Each structure stands twice: as structure tokens, then as C-alpha cells.
């Protein structure tokens, strides 16, 4: 037994996870030498020809697998595959250096077939072996100006198998790492199965490239996460809290680390709070409502500029785009920092400001999508993502119920509309006082008392207004909208003018963007 284990480095760990999945094992500690030999054999059989010769330029650029000079030299590529994939075992020479990944002795032979003055130092790996490190002869950023990283044969094999545990997305690789080893293995296995299937199909059709994933990196990551969670066999793994970090990378020399728009490496993190929120959304209690919101978050196809009908511009068949992004999924990566914007956009259905024609959020509307406004989902979001105090959540709900009942009893459309459009705390306070005074004048109990008002809108000291008082206002609106839609005789359908025009909502949202 080799007793291999994850190290915390995403490239090594994802490669090791892919080998573990390929061997149909759950734990890398269960791998034996025959399993490593199987992975090495796969590299020899598939890395030396298309479509992988093209695919590997993303991660193993300048290796003998991808060098144009060796395009038709199958013997050279096979010899190189054996060098980088089979350099493990008792009979392989070792050096005095230690592998930076495993702590085992590094290899005692060069990691290329070059000879003479171009030969590489024994056991030292460079950019063609490990993505994103420096190339041969580059002494900058190397300890004591000594370039290359010492690696063991097993580490080298894992690094070569790393692309098989990633998905091709946007011309790059998407690798998923986690503090839960089961999740690393599951994501790597998902990518591995898809890659092997696409490789087989490409070989049958003699295609030179693998197809891209149909989604953007963010949307693909959330889709993969939710797909994994729906299977009962993963339930035990999901009960253990975990976070995930995704690495969207290219080893291409054309991408500059100083390019803010398209750096060679982008890192996306989903903390365990967000993952727990997503896990709960897959339960029957929330699933239907959540999926309806997600369905209306997909990027729309571009419209044809040349095709018109009596109903206006329509989509042209030859211009239909594949669904590339889901804006709900994309915005999950902006949580919890932009929680209020998320709530206002997706749960209150406020239309987007300056949204592109393909952005579905420009047509969001609480007036026409009132069935999507859900306090149940909102309450879950407040608990799991924003960690709001339970007492404050309950006080907001109670206040929303009372104000909704007041609007119905008084048929006060103006109050409801003004509440939506309130821009200042003083304006909101006047509206609440007016409603409270009417309630008192009608001989009924107050809509809200001092304690209720302070809990909803003030800090714990009872003297300082909450910086997010507008958040509390939006939450009250969510509860009121749902109450007036579900607890009454279709009051909102009979009084659509109670809600501001979408144009007014767009303007109001601009005032409150974070």
C-alpha cells in the first residue's frame, strides 16, 4: 500500500482524486501500485494523440504532448509519457531532494528527454509539468536563484492526471477543491467521467478538440454542486460542513497576471454558510419555490436585428445562444457581502438597473411575478446566509403581517406604494406613524409598539438606527406582498396600482444599491 493522501495543494489533490476515481476507490489511501499503473497507461494511450493533445495546451503547455514540433512524432510523445507517468516504484532513481508535495524523495532523473546543454536538472519540474509556475531557466522567484521544483514520481503522475479531474470551461480548466476530501473526489469523478466520455466520442468522430462546458464557470460550479447533492448517497457527505474553492486557470503564456479582466488564474470561493443554504434549498420544503426563481435567472438569447413580426422583434433560430449564465448562481458568489441586493433582486423581484438585453433581471417585477415573492425562502436566507437574530426575523414578520392587514382593511394602496418608494428613514417613520394613528383612531390596538419598532429598525442599544434600515423595509415588503397575495381575496390582482411601476422600482433600486 502506498498510503497516499491529500496535501492541501489543489493541483496535486485534484489529480490524486481523479486517479482515485479512475481506480474506482473512495480514498486515496486505498490505492495500490496497480492503480497508479492504470492511470499511467491511460496517459500513454490518450495524451499522445488528439483530442487530448489540444486539450492539454490549457494546463501542460510546452510539454512534449503539446509541442507542435512533435505533432507527428508518436514515439517521442510516448517516450515522454512514460517518463512523466511511470517514474515511480522501487527501481526508480531518487535524488537527495525532497518532493514539495509529498515530502518523499524527489526523482533522480530529468523530467524531459532533452540532452546535452538543454537537459533538465534531475527531479526538477517546470511550467510544462506544473501549471502556473515559471519555465525553464527562469531564476526569478526561485529560492537562491535555483529554478524548478523537486517532485516525486507519484506527485508527477498526479500533476499529469490533474486535467482529467477538471472541466473545460471558457477555454480554461475549472478545478474544485474543498476541506472535505469526499467532495474533492466527487467533483473530480464528475469531471473525469464527462472527460472520458467526450474523449471517446471525439476519437470516434475524429474531432481535434473537446467541447466546452455549456455554462460559465460560476453557473457550472453551482450546477455541479446541486447535481451532486440530489443523490441520496451523497447525503452523509453533505451533512459534514464544508466549503469549496474553485480554480479557473490557464497555463497559456498569452495571459498576463497583471490583466485584471482575464488573469491566468481566477479563484472562486463558496463558504460553508452558502453551501448549507444551497443544501437546504434542495429539500422539498423549498425546492419548488427556489427552482422557479432559478428558472427565471437564465441568460436570454440575443434577439435578431433583422427579423420582425407584428408582435415585435423575435429570436432568430440561427442566433439562439446556449444558456451560458444563470444570474442567480452568479450572484451567490457575491454573498454575504451583497445580501441586500440579492434579496431585493431575486426575492422582492425588483428589476435590474441598466441591465443588458440578455439579462432577464431587467424584466423582473413584483407586480407580474408576485407568485415568486416568498417569505419562507427569505426567512431561510436570513437565517443561513445573513445569520440574523431570530427575534428580529420574527418581529419583521409580525410587523409585515400587521401592515398587510392594515392595507387590506383600509384599502390603503397609497401607503403600500409609498412604503416601496421610501428613500429616507424619516419618510418611513412618518408612514408608520400615520398608519399607527389610524389604527388607534379606529379603536384598535397599535400596529407596532416601541419595542417592536426598535427591534426591527434599531441596534441592540435601542438608540442607534440600523445602518441597514432599508433592508428591514424590503423584508417587510416581501412579507406584506406575500400576505396580500396568499391570505386575501387576490387583493393585489384587484389593486395592481398599489405597486409602483417597474420604472419607478428601477429608479428606487438605484438609490439603494450597495
Describe the structure.
36% of the residues are buried. This protein folds into 2 domains: 259 residues, no CATH class; 143 residues, no CATH class. Strand 5 and strand 6 form a beta hairpin. The two termini are 55 Å apart. It has 514 residues and is an alpha+beta fold. The strands form 4 sheets. A 4-stranded antiparallel β-sheet has the order 5-6-7-8, with helices on both faces. 44% of the residues lie in helices and 7% in strands. The longest helix has 25 residues.
Write out key terms for the chains shown.
514 residues; alpha+beta; 2 domains; four-stranded antiparallel β-sheet; two-stranded antiparallel sheet; 10 strands; disordered C terminus
At a glance:
With 514 residues, the protein is of the alpha+beta class. Helices cover 44% and strands 7% of the residues.
Helix fraction? 40-55%
Number of domains: 2
CA-CA gap between termini: 55 Å
Shape: elongated
Layout of helices and strands:
Elements (H helix, E strand, L loop, with lengths): L9 H13 L10 H14 L5 H4 L18 H12 L8 E5 L6 E3 L16 E2 L23 E2 L2 H9 L5 E3 L2 E7 L2 H25 L11 H13 L5 H5 L4 E6 L15 E6 L1 H10 L5 H9 L12 E2 L2 E2 L13 H6 L6 H9 L27 H10 L5 H21 L2 H9 L3 H17 L8 H8 L11 H18 L4 H4 L7 H11 L2
Antiparallel strand pairs: 1-2, 3-4, 5-6, 6-7, 7-8, 9-10
Helix pairs in contact: 1-5, 1-6, 2-4, 2-5, 9-13, 12-18, 14-18
Amino acid at each position: 500500500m502506498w498510503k497516499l493522501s491529500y496535501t492541501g495543494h489543489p493541483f496535486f489533490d485534484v489529480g490524486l482524486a481523479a486517479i482515485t476515481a479512475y481506480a474506482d476507490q473512495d480514498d486515496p489511501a486505498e490505492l495500490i501500485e496497480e492503480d497508479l499503473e492504470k492511470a499511467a497507461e491511460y496517459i500513454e494511450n490518450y495524451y499522445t494523440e488528439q483530442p487530448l493533445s489540444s486539450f492539454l495546451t490549457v494546463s501542460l503547455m510546452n510539454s512534449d504532448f503539446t509541442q507542435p514540433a512533435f505533432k507527428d512524432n508518436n514515439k517521442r510523445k510516448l517516450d515522454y509519457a512514460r517518463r512523466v507517468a511511470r517514474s515511480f516504484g522501487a527501481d526508480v532513481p531518487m535524488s537527495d531532494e525532497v518532493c514539495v508535495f509529498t515530502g518523499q524523495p524527489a526523482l533522480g532523473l530529468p523530467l524531459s528527454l532533452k540532452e546535452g546543454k538543454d537537459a533538465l536538472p534531475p527531479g526538477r519540474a517546470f511550467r510544462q509539468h506544473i501549471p502556473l509556475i515559471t519555465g525553464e531557466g527562469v531564476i526569478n522567484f526561485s529560492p537562491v536563484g535555483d529554478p524548478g521544483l523537486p517532485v516525486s514520481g507519484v506527485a508527477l503522475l498526479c500533476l499529469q492526471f490533474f486535467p482529467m479531474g477538471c472541466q473545460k470551461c471558457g477555454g480554461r480548466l475549472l478545478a474544485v477543491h474543498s476541506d472535505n476530501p469526499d467532495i474533492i473526489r466527487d467533483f473530480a469523478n464528475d469531471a473525469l467521467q464527462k472527460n472520458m466520455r467526450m474523449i471517446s466520442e471525439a476519437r470516434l468522430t475524429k474531432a481535434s478538440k473537446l467541447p466546452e462546458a455549456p455554462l460559465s464557470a460560476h453557473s457550472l460550479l453551482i450546477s455541479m454542486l446541486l447535481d451532486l447533492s440530489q443523490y441520496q448517497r451523497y447525503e452523509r457527505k453533505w451533512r459534514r460542513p464544508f466549503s469549496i474553492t474553485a480554480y479557473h486557470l490557464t497555463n497559456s503564456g498569452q495571459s498576463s497576471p497583471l490583466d485584471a479582466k482575464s488573469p491566468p488564474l481566477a479563484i472562486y470561493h463558496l463558504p460553508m454558510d452558502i453551501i448549507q443554504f444551497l443544501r437546504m434549498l434542495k429539500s422539498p420544503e423549498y425546492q419548488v419555490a427556489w427552482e422557479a426563481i432559478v428558472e427565471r435567472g437564465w441568460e436570454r438569447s440575443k434577439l435578431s436585428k433583422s427579423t420582425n413580426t407584428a408582435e415585435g422583434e423575435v429570436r432568430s433560430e440561427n442566433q439562439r445562444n446556449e444558456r451560458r449564465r444563470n444570474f442567480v448562481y452568479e450572484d451567490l458568489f457575491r454573498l454575504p457581502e451583497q445580501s441586500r441586493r440579492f434579496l431585493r433582486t431575486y426575492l422582492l423581484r425588483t428589476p435590474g438597473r441598466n441591465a443588458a438585453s440578455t439579462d432577464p433581471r431587467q424584466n423582473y417585477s413584483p407586480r407580474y411575478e408576485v407568485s415568486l415573492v416568498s417569505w419562507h425562502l427569505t426567512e431561510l436566507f436570513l437565517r443561513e446566509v445573513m445569520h440574523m437574530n431570530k427575534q428580529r426575523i420574527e418581529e419583521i414578520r409580525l410587523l409585515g403581517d400587521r401592515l398587510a392587514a392594515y392595507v387590506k382593511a383600509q384599502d390603503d394602496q397609497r401607503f403600500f406604494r409609498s412604503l416601496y418608494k421610501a428613500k429616507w428613514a424619516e419618510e418611513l417613520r412618518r408612514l408608520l406613524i400615520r398608519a399607527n394613528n389610524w389604527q388607534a383612531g379606529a379603536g384598535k390596538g397599535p400596529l407596532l409598539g416601541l419595542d417592536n419598532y426598535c427591534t426591527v429598525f434599531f441596534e441592540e442599544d435601542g438608540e442607534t438606527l440600523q445602518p441597514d434600515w432599508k433592508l428591514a423595509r424590503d423584508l417587510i415588503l416581501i412579507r406584506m406582498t406575500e400576505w396580500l397575495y396568499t391570505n386575501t381575496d387576490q387583493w393585489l390582482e384587484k389593486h395592481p396600482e398599489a405597486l409602483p411601476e417597474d420604472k419607478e422600482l428601477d429608479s428606487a433600486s438605484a438609490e439603494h444599491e450597495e
